[in-house]
Amino acid sequence: MAKTIFITGGAGFIGSHVVRLFVNKYPDYLIVNIDALTYAGNLENLKDICDAPNYKFEKADITDFQTITTLFSKYQPIGVIHLAAESHVDRSITDPFLFVRTNVMGTCNLLHAVKEAWKGDMEGKRFYHISTDEVYGALQCDGTFFTETTRYTPHSPYSASKASSDHFVRAYHDTFGLPIVISNCSNNYGANQFPEKLIPLAINNIKHKRPIPIYGKGENIRDWLFVNDHARAIDIIFHNGKNGETYNIGGNNEWTNIDLIRTLCAILDKKLGRRNGESAELITFVKDRAGHDLRYAINSSKLQNELGWHPSLQFEEGLEKTVDWYLTNEAWVDNITSGNYQKYYEQQYNQR
Ligand code: NAD
Ligand code: TYD
Known about the structure:
Elements: E1 3-8, H1 13-25, E2 29-35, E3 55-59, H2 65-75, E4 79-82, H3 89-94, H4 96-118, E5 126-132, H5 157-176, E6 180-185, E7 187-189, H6 198-207, E8 212-215, E9 221-226, H7 227-240, E10 246-249, E11 254-256, H8 257-271, E12 283-286, H9 301-307, H10 315-328, H11 330-338, H12 344-349
Parallel strand pairs: 1-2, 1-4, 2-3, 4-5, 5-6, 6-10, 7-9, 8-12
Antiparallel strand pairs: 9-11
Helix pairs in contact: 1-7, 2-4, 4-5, 6-8, 6-10, 8-10
């Protein structure tokens, strides 16, 4: 019988890359994508693999304990890779409770369902929780980095909800012996990212000659990692990470927001045949985000030294690939801005 792996949030940005990697690389696994298809879930992200014999989609909300328990009985997975979450900081400022519900309660539901399903037989099982570097809080511009032992100091409702979920995952390991692993990754970029996050939002606005909003002075620093490199790290950690451990994942690639946007503008000027400097005229400084973390930077040497993972791309190369993807997949962005992508599920799955 095929080994079944649950991937939650597989219709989202990072989840869809992880699902594709696992479906293509592991024909002996049955990959079950569990996703509630919120505004951020888009099955079009997976249309190239949706008919693969080792792939199944289940529309389910991780906060619904009964449904999740039923899915565990139906498939009896030996592994769970948990990405489902509310993921956008600005949304967490306007609706913190949604983040508590999905990120904290949803994770607890999954943990409890897993504990019940694997009771008495944890051998060969693994619950892998995907988290963020934002749980560590903010760094000054002083050359320091987040390590796996940095104290948790979340500032936004998003990072507080992810920190809480990390604590629950560890608590289920320490209290009930659940086999777990956690990774905390820096900012991702690449194909299929919802155009509310900085890079796809800027690409789309530049294309349409709309203002590019930069919060505050644009001096905040993020460490950017190409999403496919994150998916590769998840594969390595899921298979080779040590039980109970945390691994930091980062690109060693720090950029101020303003420098990043200027670089994007220059790439798009070339690709769109615009005068050099034309797109940068769209840069518009706006009111800063409340509680805006100054700097994130990850030390990923544990993952690099112990498990042999390294980022594969230089940032400029990754940005070019990303820009090319957004320019050649205009229909994907248009479907999101029109809301049409949410009809895809009904077309594809309701008739099956
Ligand atoms: P995303 O917002 O693009 O996707 C989230 C997915 O989760 C969507 O498909 C959505 O439908 C699904 N989902 C939301 N609520 C759900 C629920 N109640 N039940 C079932 N499914 C639900 O997010 P992303 O950017 O792909 O992030 C994925 C994970 O990686 C998150 O846990 C996030 O915290 C973490 N992470 C993201 C980044 C980043 O830069 N994007 C960096 C580090 C860690
Ligand atoms: P974002 O993509 O929302 O990721 P996160 O907040 O999780 O790091 O934002 C990345 C950086 O870009 C962050 O410092 C906030 C800033 N930002 C802007 O300046 N303008 C924008 O319109 C957005 C969405 C983000």
